[in-house]
Structure formats: structure tokens, C-alpha cells
């Protein structure tokens, strides 16, 4: 059996847990089901989801709680949330799924 440092493409962890067949595409592993993937969560998409949820929370709570409004006013590019920017959209930088889909489409079907 291969050790993790000997195997390319993070193979042993997913193979040992029976989540990924070795010759299948790694790109398809993290793609959402609506795009033809298996929809296994990745750290990248989870990060963008957390940023979006935390921004929504702080913006809603800033209306009624003084501490939250002070945090929103003080956060000028100090955190990934960028709370002081009104028009900041964290999803505009989230091209992870589209990059995976384009890499998956250029691969041959078999082999």
C-alpha cells in the first residue's frame, strides 16, 4: 500500500475511505451534482460559504448591536469579510467550480 507522500493527487486518503476510484477524475469529485460531479465539499467552497454567511450575520446584527456596528466600521480589509465595503461580493472570486468543470471537460472520456 502506498504512503500519502508517495501517491500523487491525494490518492490514498480517498481510496482508503472508499470515496474515490483511482482512475476517475479528481475534478469531478468536488463538482456540485448539478454540474455532473459527486458534490463532496471542499475547503475552498466552504471558505466562501463561511465568508458569505458571516458577512450577512454582521450586517444584520450591526443594525441593533453597537459592538457589531463598531466591528463593521473598523474592518477595512483587515479580514477576508471586508465588512466596511458595502458592495463587496465574496462569490465574485469563487471560480473554483467553473475551473474544475473546464479542466474536467478537456480530459479524455476513457484512459
Describe the structure.
Helices cover 44% and strands 0% of the residues. With 111 residues, it is an all-alpha fold. The two termini are 23 Å apart. 5% of the residues are buried. It folds into two domains: 40 residues, no CATH class; 60 residues, no CATH class. It contains five helices and no strands.
Termini separation (Å)? 23 Å
Quaternary:
single chain
**Strand content bin:** under 5%
Q: Sketch the major β-sheet.
A: none
Uncertain ranges: 1-7
Provide the gyration radius in Å: 19 Å
Global shape: elongated
Structural class call reads mainly alpha
Task: Sketch the topology as an H/E string, one letter per element.
Answer: HHHHH
Helicity range: 40-55%
Helix segment count? 5
Total domain modules:
2
What number is the mean pLDDT?
Answer: 75
Region (Disordered): 1-40
Features:
disordered N terminus, mainly alpha, 111 residues, 5 helices, 2 domains, 44% helix
In short:
Residues 1-40 are annotated as: Disordered. The chain is mostly helical. It folds into 2 domains: 1-40, no CATH class; 43-102, no CATH class.
